[in-house]
């Protein structure tokens, strides 16, 4: 059921069949102001409730519908939840707009869309020569945060796992955009990212230049405090021999190189999960 749900979710995401208003982050942007406000979430208890409530709802729903129509309703909930959590058209559109701006030499638009693509980085002090590599690093990170980690949690914990992970991720992104501090969010997300980031970053080792990437991965893999972003990006960069910067206003070569590496890594992840399902390691 998990593998089937994952493959259908990937298909729907690639075909852009789910409207942006139905995607998980869009639904969460309505859920948050409806039940909670920024002031209420300054309390650790309220923040914990806000992060847990969608997950509790998923647990209750799966318990209520268990056995309905010989498991058909449960399968539908798995599929629907996977599709909701896997579709991220906003990131795809921002990346496409960045590529188009770079192709036409619009430097200011490139800075704008690079910031929209990954708001966690500060690009104000980034030179035009470095912007292409920075966008490539963002692509590697987004591939993990919005696809790789979600796929792993779906296979390991089902709808409950991906709803909880995506809820915590939403609040982390929300706090970053609003430039506010929310209690517990960073700590919980760090814990949730610890194992998946090690798995996905090892995929970069296997998908790119093995020896240098493995050296970096081995040095950092056991660190408890290392941010997942740093691990994923450092291993991805070491796994790909980035081409030299061209004379274009914004060079796309490093961006496309890291994007292709991220695609290979995700295909490796899906293939590995498929084989583990076939051999009964995961259900």
TrEMBL record:
Keywords: Membrane, Transmembrane, Transmembrane helix. InterPro entries: AmpE (IPR031347), Beta-lactamase_Reg (IPR052966). GO terms for biological process: response to antibiotic. Pfam families: AmpE (PF17113). It comes from the Bacteria. The chain crosses the membrane at residues 41-65, 72-91, 146-168, 266-282. One of its GO terms (cellular component) is plasma membrane. This is Beta-lactamase regulator AmpE. It comes from Shewanella gelidii.
